[in-house]
Amino acid sequence: MIAPGTHDEHDIDFLGKGITVRGEDPEDEATVAATIVDATGLGRVFHFSAGGTSSALLTGLTVRGGSVIDDWRGGGGILCESSSPTIELCVIEANSSEEPGGGICCRDSSPSIRRCELRDNSGEYGAALYAGDSTVEIERTLFAYNSASVSGGAMSLSGGSTGLANCVMIGNDARSGGAIDLNGGSDGSETNLLACTLIDNRAHYSDGGGVDADSRSIVDIRSTIVRDNWPENLYAPYADIVVEYSNIGGGWDGIGNINEDPLFLAAGDHHISPLSPCVDRGDPVEVPIEDLDGDPRPMGAGVDIGADESPAGIVALLPQGSQRGIVWEAFEHTLSVVNLAGETLPLDSLIVHYAWSGGIRERVHGGPTLWIDAGDTLEWDLDPVPNEVGVHRILAEAFSGPEPASIAYFDLHALAVPGAIRVPADLPSIAGAITLALDGDEVIVAPGTYFESLLSFYGKAIRVTGTDPQNPLIVDSTVIDGDGIGPIMTFNQQEQATSELSGLTIRGGYGTDYGAGIFCENSSPTIEYCAIADNRAGYRGGGAWLRAGSPTLVHCRFERNSIDESFTGGGGGLFGEDCDLALIDCEFTSNFGGHGGGGMRVDGGNLRIARSVFRSNRAEKGGALRLWCDSIYVESCLFESNQATETSGGGAWLSSGADFVNCIFAGNSGVRDGGAMYKSFDGDLHLINTTVVGNETDTWQGAGGIYASHGDKLVVLNSIVWGNRAWGGGGSQQIQTYFDEPLVAFSNVQGGWPGSGNIDAEPGMRNPWRGDFRLSASSPCIDAGTSSSAPPSDYEGDPRPQGGGVDIGADEYSRPREVDSAAR
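RE: above sequence
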């Protein structure tokens, strides 16, 4: 027996003995939480080695801090090898494994796991639980917020047989199988889910957010809720799967299945309302005797779908979902009590608890006993006054005898100012303010430095903003500093454009492979007037990683962000992947992108960049940009002094077609093949009214300006290509292609180029060596272009044309206004 306290021990082996290791009071949650065995990262915590019998029992403990590195057996918290222990009434948390089973790993074993919580564990496969060729029985167990780097956020099962009853899986994530990954193994596997609830789990790279089952898996799901998992609830196109009497998001064929809102009592809570469509709709034959909380099943005419059995008889009802209130103002609501039984029942008393400062307990009804006929409802109007900012639970207990017959609750979000939470005036932390905010609210952050990270919008349509987003001095002084932990801000719960991040500096995020500053996946937030600076990721997106969704970034600055991995990583400032991405009026300065894309790298999806500046960014290839997208449109952008340190494309490396309109490439450099731009693979590259001047390569290979090695066609129209150098000599200094001749027309190319309307004359820019690329009054480029395909405005937004024709280059010469002599 282990007394309460923290016991720093690791690699504790049962040695095959049929013994009990227990805390003092396994049935008391507080005692279990206080009785901790912590491996402190020095090894796994417990080991049931070969030969262990079913009489081995681990109960009433918190097992945490286990870590397994370079051990293929896995099991950071607990490892079961050819053994059959019982693990019950334990909390298994914050364990990790570089191999399978961050929390528990079972190999050729037959464990029983009952009434446990497995949370915040991490592993390669099966972050909470991995079972290989094992027979596992799991009852009344919670799997919450576990994360697998490969598959099975809650559990990964390979071969064998697993049965789950009255279990909840919430908030787990993995690349595939956000909650459960089923791999039949060499001999196939069988998995049964009875009266379980799987909600809010996520798969990042496959369709199975709830369950992902392969072709060798046999799956039976009954009386189970599988909803709000991303991207799909069930993915089993080739598995032998039966789903009956269940509530499946998006629907699923099978006897008794429904597709309806379960009406959970609160966000993140698995308990269902007495009015839920899941009530009495479960499998009438296979009925577990109790639910996750130990309440008897069934309570009504039939068993309920999901891990919770809603009470029948006298039932208290409160407003559904989170509610909004104002501090020191009455919050008016109705408390109802309904009799859902088929007979008259007594209501002896009704008590409401308000959880704000001081804690208020109000006896709404204390007697005499009220008899409520079947189906009837009684109502009380309440108007409590919250006395502090925060999220306060309002809980009602209806008594029909000495114990509560029913409990109902909701969360009241009390603000000091309607629609706004001020940091630090109302709450000291941004994390707390976001938790308090509801859709439509604004979190307003005062200037200062806030050392916070791993922040999330939680899918809310809220605005998190500094006090003056359009004032750069205020933005620079309003800082969320990750203090070496990243990502700092996360969007991964399908946030839309109404989720806004504005007017803040995001800096100091490290220690993550993807998106040290901002991590955005399958979401479409709006990020504006932010400075993302001095963040470093291990692999992709030092400043931000954006995958899927349609994020929009406006007036943002990416400065001095970097990545560590130089072989395949990239995107020092930003990495986009398979998303529809828009960047408008942004700046990328002094970012380092490792293998490619110092400013940004985008693979897949559609990209639009407008009125943005890329300056002094570096990477092995694509100093400013490395792009391979379905479509690319770049307009009115400046690429200046960017560098490809190992190969090509100082300004841009392109592996797909693209349109560059009204852009300027100046002073960019590469080792070879295109100091300004390098183009390969399929798709046309169009340069329209673009100025390419003063770029260079270190060797003779390729051109100092534009080099196209593969692809369909290079088209240069109304553009200036001048003063570029390939210092080794040989080949063209300005434009060079490997296969097809480019189409160059109405352009000014140094040394000349065949084509309609081309000229070879010093462009006459005002002061290009000091960054002024506007045309002087004597420029031969004035009126020398063509209106065909010409944009309606120039780089600075001035209208085209302004004279007798369209000018060549990014700038349209603005003639001095004539003064009417009669008006003098």
